[in-house]
């Protein structure tokens, strides 16, 4: 490491070359965006997902960026499935340097109507799946005696509750992820493992569009687009730079941090929006 008064070049700090990562939920959406970004920066990625196959572009990443990628169909709600997938990834790569547990689901439904099974499914995927993928990753990094980094996916829903968005079970799950990252950052720091989160705002995705279109009021749905001060939804491209930063040596002194990527929604909303009563 350079001395305190010796400046280093910044660009090389962001490289992820010769590093091996696990991304859950990487078949599509935010998980795939993170996978592609890691590959672009030189990292190898094992994608875990319940889908039978990933988006078509996944098959081109290895050749495009000169990295190794593998796809493992599995289920993050099942302990043996997680362990089997992890062992396959470790056998393929030899070492593991970090993870991005991005598998997650949401439901927009009034609190008084949400069911036991709906709540359980959200917690199983969003929280327990993240917890045990992170645990296996941390155990392996400790065993290797190397350093590592994990980026967990929290949400604006871990920080704020917006009128009209009936997502209590999802909010609870993302609040759990935010606190989990802080607890792990403290506990794993002696092992050289950093743990951080990103908190996206509403992301323009198939899931978000479905929620928007299901709103009883067109105005209510439009708030997802217009409420942030930047007056637009986040895109996957808004998130990937932060993920690369947090995984890389550029963030080597950053742990227990949360980067809110909301277009400013966490600080305030556009006047006149989100002011109605249900």
From TrEMBL:
Sequence intervals crossing the membrane: none
Query: What InterPro entries does the annotation carry?
Result: NAD(P)-bd_dom_sf, Sc_DH/Rdtase_CS, SDR_fam
Domain of life of the organism encoding this protein: Eukaryota
Recorded hits in Pfam families, A to Z, give:
adh_short_C2
Keywords for the protein's UniProt record, in alphabetical order: NADP, Oxidoreductase
- Key word Zinc-finger present: no
Molecular-function annotations in GO: oxidoreductase activity, acting on NAD(P)H, oxygen as acceptor; oxidoreductase activity, acting on the CH-OH group of donors, NAD or NADP as acceptor
| Family affiliation | Belongs to the short-chain dehydrogenases/reductases (SDR) family.
Indicate what this protein is called per its UniProt record. NAD(P)-binding domain-containing protein
Give the originating organism.
Pochonia chlamydosporia 170
